[in-house]
Write a structure and sequence with these properties.
mainly alpha, two-stranded antiparallel ribbon, 288 residues
């Protein structure tokens, strides 16, 4: 039983990491609270489910969900860009940008409700991954969730490697640390911002599509995912990829373990750790 819960924690935590990592880095650079991120996750899940229904091709479903979410992110970026040049204080511009993402959130959520309805939907697992593996003592664990845990963990390692060890990652880190100096050395910080926002949206769509077979898609899921993503960002620290990974594991563990003890505890525990982090280390575990 413990082994099953550990695997559940890993699979859920890696989904949280994929959702939160891009948002954390984007927030670290732009200081824009992208309130549409949970809705983009939900959009990726719905697109994947629809494509899977009509094509019966799981890989195509995941690709469609990822690309659809990335396109939604690109559209949001296109409308965000003019707001960065309006007169007034930086705080005022950020408020307008946050309100714009809130408007896109409502647009995506209401459009999804009109297109797919309010009932829960799931994406069928690919046939090759539809079985279970024995864990001993008569316990079985779904092959799909096991494979997704490995795949998402590999994606997390690749993301951290790119962020910390490549020239592209260096540009992103420099943009997080000091935008003025980064601009002076010839890096297009605005382009980096736009790229990170779009990549973060695509990662959210990927998360929604690959989690659709066991989490599904339903009205209200966007809010749940958005809040968990914000908790991961606060606990891990802005602009830290490793922080997002550690925080996702912590939040995922508390969510799964809390629900075992009592369903209400699973809902409260992530907020408790977020509050404790803000009190003890407001910059987050690995934030600056």
């Amino acid at each position: 039983m413990l082994g099953i819960q550990v695997l559940n924690t890993i699979s859920f935590s890696m989904i949280l990491f994929l959702v939160s990592a891009g948002l954390s880095v984007a927030f670290g650079i732009t200081r824009i609270l992208t309130l549409a991120h949970g809705a983009i996750y939900l959009l990726g899940a719905y697109i994947g489910i629809s494509v899977g229904r009509y094509t019966d091709n799981f890989l195509l479903s995941v690709m469609a969900g990822t690309l659809g979410a990335g396109l939604a992110g690109a559209i949001i970026v296109r409308f965000l860009a003019p707001l960065s040049t309006i007169p007034g204080s930086e705080a005022k511009r950020h408020m307008y940008q946050a309100l714009l993402t809130f408007g896109f959130m409502l647009l995506i959520v209401d459009s999804s409700l009109a297109a797919w309805g309010g009932e829960a939907r799931i994406l069928p697992k690919p046939g090759i991954l539809s079985g279970s593996v024995p864990l001993g003592d008569g316990l079985q664990y779904p092959v799909y969730r096991l494979v997704i845990s490995v795949v998402t963990l590999a994606i997390a390692v690749i993301c951290i490697r790119v962020y910390e060890k490549t020239y592209l990652g260096a540009m992103v880190r420099a943009s997080v640390d000091d935008q003025e100096i980064t601009n002076c050395i010839g890096v297009n910080v605005q382009g980096v911002m736009n790229g990170v926002l779009i990549a973060g949206s695509a990662m959210a769509g990927l998360s929604g599509a690959i989690a659709a077979p066991f989490i599904g898609a339903y009205a209200g899921l966007d809010g749940e995912i958005l809040m968990l993503a914000f908790i991961v960002i606060v606990v891990g620290g802005l602009g830290s990829m490793r922080g997002a990974l550690f925080a996702a594991l912590i939040v995922g563990t508390l969510d799964v373990a809390g629900r075992i003890v009592h369903p209400a505890l699973g809902l409260i525990a992530p907020y408790v750790i977020m509050a404790a982090t803000l009190i003890v280390k407001p910059t987050g575990l690995l934030g600056k």
